[in-house]
């Protein structure tokens, strides 16, 4: 019996998708740049303790300023010493969501879908939709009823529950899989070699297992052979969490709903919204329909 298990089933789901947020901010805006922990190693300046420095960056995918681990040197300008500084320089730029909404409405008025800074005709495939959501597959622009706006329909993978075994842990050695494989040491053959392991804050992880740093809600790390004990966005160790807001919450964004978050056990704001306040939904829907009709 192998120690690795994997199983996948696929179901069709319908979802609204938008992208092209790059039209909101200027081409040179630091707020568009990806999170970058910098170039210091654990033995260099500001990292001699083996610990990273907490900084803030604007999450282009999640529409918010949030924490990230900074090594102490290098990186890019999307790097702020305080949450207030990040909000002051980037959240005001976010106020320009009108171009994004205008693009969506213009596409809908032509009975098309909008994604990735371009429009798609009904029945046209949209393979790029998996960029934000690896579990969204075989996406295409679909129209189901006359007089309604087209939507993007994807085949979404329905991942199975944990296999039997109290010591099983989910792993993903590629870092891009939708469903996890599982490593179950108690079920591993005696001749199977022990997996590579990483240690973070006294806890041990096996290769491919996700490390979720408590102090960085929007950062997910993976145990791999590049692990040095320090959180870094280099060499595939850590990457940004993508909440899929531009896929699953398109209507909320168009209606100007306000996202709500919870406070984590470490006292940080959660990365992804748990619900939305849509008090202005009816008004915004009326305005949107009026705009679409006159387009």
TrEMBL record:
The keyword Disulfide bond applies. This is Kunitz-type serine protease inhibitor superbin-3. Residues 31-90 form the BPTI/Kunitz inhibitor domain. The keyword Nuclease does not apply. Coiled coil: none annotated. Residues 1-26 form the signal peptide. SUPFAM superfamilies: BPTI-like. One of its GO terms (cellular component) is extracellular space. It comes from the Eukaryota. GO terms for molecular function: serine-type endopeptidase inhibitor activity. Residues 196-279 form the VWFC domain. InterPro entries: Kunitz_BPTI (IPR002223), Kunitz_BPTI_sf (IPR036880), Prtase_inh_Kunz-CS (IPR020901), TFPI/VKTCI-like (IPR050098), VWF_dom (IPR001007). Keywords: Disulfide bond, Protease inhibitor, Serine protease inhibitor, Signal.
């Amino acid at each position: 019996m192998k120690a690795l298990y994997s199983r996948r089933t696929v179901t069709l789901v319908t979802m609204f998708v938008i992208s092209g947020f790059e039209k909101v901010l200027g081409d040179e805006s630091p707020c568009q740049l990806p999170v970058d922990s910098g170039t210091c190693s654990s033995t260099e300046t500001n990292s001699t303790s083996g610990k990273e420095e907490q900084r803030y960056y604007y999450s282009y995918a999640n529409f918010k300023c949030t924490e990230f681990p900074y090594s102490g040197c290098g990186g890019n300008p999307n790097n702020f010493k305080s949450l207030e500084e990040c909000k002051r320089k980037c959240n005001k730029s976010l106020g320009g969501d009108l171009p994004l909404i205008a693009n969506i409405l213009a596409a809908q008025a032509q009975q098309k879908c909008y994604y990735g800074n371009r429009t798609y005709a009904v029945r046209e495939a949209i393979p790029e939709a998996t960029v934000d959501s690896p579990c969204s597959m075989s996406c295409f622009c679909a129209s189901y009823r006359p007089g309604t706006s087209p939507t993007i329909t994807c085949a979404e993978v329905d991942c199975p529950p944990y296999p039997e075994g109290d010591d099983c842990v989910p792993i993903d050695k590629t870092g891009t899989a939708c469903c996890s494989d599982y490593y179950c040491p108690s079920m591993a053959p005696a001749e199977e070699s022990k997996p590579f392991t990483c240690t973070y804050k006294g806890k041990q992880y096996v290769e491919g297992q996700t490390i979720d740093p408590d102090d960085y809600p929007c950062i997910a790390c993976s145990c791999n052979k590049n692990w040095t004990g320090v959180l870094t966005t280099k060499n595939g160790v850590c990457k940004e969490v993508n909440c899929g807001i531009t896929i699953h919450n398109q209507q909320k964004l168009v209606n100007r709903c306000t996202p709500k978050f919870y406070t984590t056990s470490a006292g940080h704001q959660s990365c992804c919204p748990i619900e939305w306040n849509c008090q202005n939904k009816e008004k915004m829907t009326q305005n949107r329909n009026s705009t679409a009709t006159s387009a």
